[in-house]
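Before the break, one more example. Copy the sequence into your notebook; we will annotate it together after we see the structure.
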Amino acid sequence: MAAAATLMTARGVAGTSTEDVRAAAGVSASQIYHYFADKRSLTRAVIDYQTDTIVGTQETLLARLDDVDALRAWAELIVAFQRNSGYSGGCPLGTLASELADCDADAREDLAAGYRRWQRAIRTGLADMADRGEFLPGTDVDRLATALLTTLQGGLLLTKTMRDPEPLETGLNTMIDHIESMTIAKTGRS
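Here is what the structure looks like once it is written out:
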């Protein structure tokens, strides 16, 4: 799975053959076809793998994004990671989504499920803030989590394209500023 995910992220799904995956993984064709009926099923497994890799490994971290300082530290970590990677790659789920969302309904649904899982993971920390009474009444943590994920995805795409961290950094900081503006501590209201 790791070999297929790496190839599909770097070359795209269309640019990755089953033979490419076989060679990169060092396995036989029969081993691939034992687990995957065809390239489409392999691609859907890659989506699940990338979701688990990206979201699954971050769920505990994302759940701890339960105050503005933690959100800012997370944003700095993401920007630093992009700098260290030379601004290449972007988001593997975003890369797959841009290629598959319009041409494969099943893959699109798998990708949407991955994004919903990511949104829920981000929401967990924001919900903890709400549960502690840190947000103004009526603050919609679902919308904030969706907006933060959307900002992250757009920022990653622009940073990858422009080879510049400024779009990602500006987007995340602006969104976190917005989240902070909805806290009672920031507004001084109760």
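The mean pLDDT is 93. The domain at 50-187 is CATH 1.10.357.10 (Tetracycline Repressor; domain 2). Try to locate both features in your own notes.
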